[in-house]
Amino acid sequence: MKNIFTKTKQLLGAVLLLSSSAFAQITWDFGTTGNLSAYPSAGIPANVTVDSLTRGNSLGTAVLLSTTSASNTYPGFSAGGNAGVPARIGALDYTVNGTTGSAYFEVKLTPDAGYTLNITNIEFGSRSTGTGPRKYSIRTSLDSYMTEQAGDTINSAASAWGLRTEALSITGTPGTAITLRIYGYDGAGSPTPGTVNFRIDDLKITATATLATPQIVFEPVNANVCSGATAQFATFTPGTFTYQWQENTGSGFVSLTNTGVYTGADDDTLNISNTTGMNGYTYRCIVTNGSGNDTSNVALLTVSAPVVPTVSIPTSMTSLCAGDAATISATATNEGTAPTYEWFWVGFGSVGTGQTLNVPAGFLPAGTHTIYCELTSNAACAAPTLVTSNSLTVTVDPLPATPVISQEADTLSTTQYASYQWYLDGTTMLGTDSAQTASTTGAYTVVVTNVEGCSATSAAYNYVVTSIGSNQATAVLTIYPNPSNGIITITTNNAIDATVFVYNVLGKLIATKQLNGISSNTIDLSAQANGSYFVVFKTDKETITKKITITK
């Protein structure tokens, strides 16, 4: 019963509203000789724009307006100009095309924004020749001309004028234009292209534009902001209206004014300059004109407190050796769903991204280094969004000098380090002293460790166990002076073929000398720096290594 009562009130209101607006009869008489016009001659209602009459689907080309075959005989004929179109024969085709479409006349009526167009009657005189239309159909753009609003048979004799009057019930939507067409169809015979066979005159359309009750087409939406930030709620209603925004803080809706944090309280967009303490408030807008009002949906304001992101990395870590790989991870709070991390190594700049920094082997030089991480948070209301971690000091110890193995008889040795580990062919663990007795043929290496705990591995020293007969004495190698200023002499007890290699303490080859059937030779190392060097004497039967010192 309530719904019936409400609908009755709405219908009654609509009747009262329509009755309060005057209908006007828009008239086209198309002028007179020398002053022809397709624009209405009278009756345009308030708040409506009316275009000139046009035509479409013409069979060939002909002038639209002329005084040829002036109107006559029907009541109210003007006998001046008229509108004509060459029409096709056959059944109605309301589509717009130049092949089969039925000819039509059309006028466009446009209401002002916020007004609704109502059309209640159409009247016009028409004249069809023997090949002209014998029926007409009134259609509108509201449904793309698919539905006939009115229509009838043209009963007048060929080439005779007659009056056509139709009651209409056409109502648009606020601000929407309506194009009304008069189609002529169902002619017969063989019309000549470009020859007018369908004319109208004294067209009258009864219409009015009524102020539409506001209809909100864009509703305000919920807003989520951070405390202290601005907020905005907007609505849209086509036409000219007054707006009143209201706020509910928990005790009911109250109308707002343009004071304090509010602007636009009487406009389509409400702005709030500071939302501190306003979490949970709701807002709505009442849109009003002379025909009524419409109230928007309620929009919720959610105000979130700021959050402070943090990022931290370890405060200490075990010392590394030069060239070691390293992994350092960051821990964050209030980082959001898609945070970004950037790592910085003081002296090197940005060295990586991601929550974990992976330092590749070979990157770290010896020394003391400082590392930190920056976090950019995307959490809602993060303040600030960019934060920096604590600093981590990383100590990178140097590697010991690469050991060089020397040989005296069957003893292999290297220089002084904190500790040693000897290997045979890379796997068998031997002694842990600076010297190792070689009893087996194979590749000997030594891994040395310095006091910082960092290690280095020598190059492989190939040792061959030989059995020498009484007439095949082992070479006796003498190097002098030692120490020297860099000029050394190498002598053997026999003239033999041998190759001499000289290495520095880092294992780098700095000189080579070939001895071919001689027992003495001089090598010039005076260009080398002061320090220790290793002289490797190699024949096809044995290898002898001796240590020398250069002092200048």
Describe the structure.
- The chain has 552 residues and is mainly β.
- The protein contains one helix and 46 strands.
- Strands 1, 6, 7, 9, 12 and 14 form a six-stranded antiparallel beta sheet that branches. Strands 4, 5, 8, 10, 11 and 13 form a six-stranded antiparallel beta sheet that branches.
- The chain starts with a helix and ends with a strand.
- The model is unreliable at 1-20 and 467-473 (pLDDT under 50).
SSE topology:
Elements: H1 2-19, E1 24-28, E2 31-32, E3 35-36, E4 48-50, E5 54-56, E6 65-66, E7 82-85, E8 104-111, E9 115-128, E10 135-140, E11 148-153, E12 161-171, E13 178-185, E14 198-211, E15 223-226, E16 231-234, E17 242-248, E18 253-255, E19 262-263, E20 269-272, E21 282-289, E22 292-295, E23 299-304, E24 310-312, E25 320-321, E26 326-329, E27 331-333, E28 340-345, E29 349-353, E30 356-359, E31 367-376, E32 386-388, E33 392-397, E34 406-408, E35 411-413, E36 419-424, E37 428-429, E38 435-437, E39 442-449, E40 455-457, E41 461-463, E42 477-480, E43 487-504, E44 509-524, E45 531-538, E46 543-550
Parallel strand pairs: 15-23, 25-33
Antiparallel strand pairs: 1-14, 2-3, 4-8, 5-8, 6-7, 7-14, 8-13, 9-12, 9-14, 10-11, 10-13, 16-20, 17-18, 17-21, 19-20, 21-22, 21-23, 24-27, 26-30, 28-29, 28-31, 31-32, 31-33, 34-35, 35-38, 36-37, 36-39, 39-40, 39-41, 42-43, 43-44, 43-45, 45-46
